[in-house]
Amino acid sequence: MTAKIAVTDLPQYLAFATKHGNSVLVVGESGIGKTEMTNDFAYNVLGNAIDWRGTQLGDAEVRGVPYREGELSRWAIPDLLPRVERDGEKGALILDELLDVTMVSVMASLQQLFHERRLGDYVLPEGWIIIGIGNRREHGGINRGLSYALQDRFSHYEVVLDPEGLERHFMAKGIDPMVTSFLHMHRDYVHKRPDKGDGNWAWPTPRSWEKVSNTRKLGPPEVLKFNLYAADVGEAAATAFCAHEKVASQVPDPDDCIKSPEKTKVPENPSARYAIACSLVHFANPDNFEPILKYMSRFPAEYGIMLVKESTTIKPELQDTDAFTKFGMENIDIMLG
Question: What residues pair up with 16 in beta bridges, in sequence order?
């Protein structure tokens, strides 16, 4: 059995892999953030990443090409492999789509890299780790499988969606609050893989909702919105999202909430209330936390509690502010609950 963890917790587990040098294999549904979380960890913690797509690799990219040196033949080291002088002493060699590799010769070369951390004359730098990423067959991948020997070389993690963790990640990343509030109200649309044989190839995933967020930030005209959204998340999800967008359209400008916390209008619709709370989580910092909490004090208590819990999880420094201390004293029973 493979350990199952929330995809947003993946960086914590990868941190341990870097300490003991284990190779890691991460599997899970398509579009839930496996590659993004892995790359973010590699760049933010290790300092660098080299990302390959296994299905695009041929023998030359992995094993190199032979050349003659006097009476001997040698293999040129592939440029894609990490080198300390160019790529630094630490990093992650990320092999995405690993389970979909179909060329036996490519997998054989990769197997030597996984087993021995070397390929011919090439040796993987000590501070670099190998992370494989793939989709099982039940997740829609080709998944040719790995040999028992190769399976034993990895620490295995299956990542799954954690809707609350995804909301927190979206807030920290600045995803459009209309998208975040919609997914809070419609959990069934966070990730909804189509049935086999379904001709609609656009379907909702965290990755496709991020595309919708990017589209909204461009301010498209109303007449185009439905088709733009449907192109990324499918017609059913786009229909539900457009309906949510209309009822949550009373969301005020976050700057107005911060500058005039006692005068800025408080939305009546629950979707709009959650949308502005999500937005303020992203905007919160030690300098504006007091007016944000003053504005949120005009909401039903659960919205302020959500904002405080999410914003202090993302930005722990907010717990050192007088505003947080005052809020905690006024809501001590709920905060400890």
Answer: none
